[in-house]
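Second attempt. The first submission of Dynein light chain had a stray character pasted in from the spreadsheet, which I only caught after the job came back as garbage. Lesson logged: always re-copy from the clean sequence file. Corrected sequence (104 aa) follows.
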Amino acid sequence: MADEARKGGAGPVPAAAGRKVIVKSADMKEEMQKEAIDCAIDAFEKQGVEKDVAERIKKEFDKNYGPTWHCIVGRNFGSYVTHETNHFIYFYLDQKAILLFKSG
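This time the job returned cleanly.
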């Protein structure tokens, strides 16, 4: 994956499970990005509530990649975060924004 796409706005991603996915910014390997998107889709299908979706994504990434991950899910929020290199993604899944990052 080109460095510009990985670190900048990657734009639309092929629809996953009929959902509209747009990666706004990412500093994360492509396979980890796909896992984050798939995890978010699954969480929204099973949980529905934003807080529960964020908790599920965070716990899944803590388990798979070690602590400490942070996840914010919602329609309207601002953020300014410091993250470990190669451990950040900000994307939209339909109308919801998901910010996922690791900090030690």
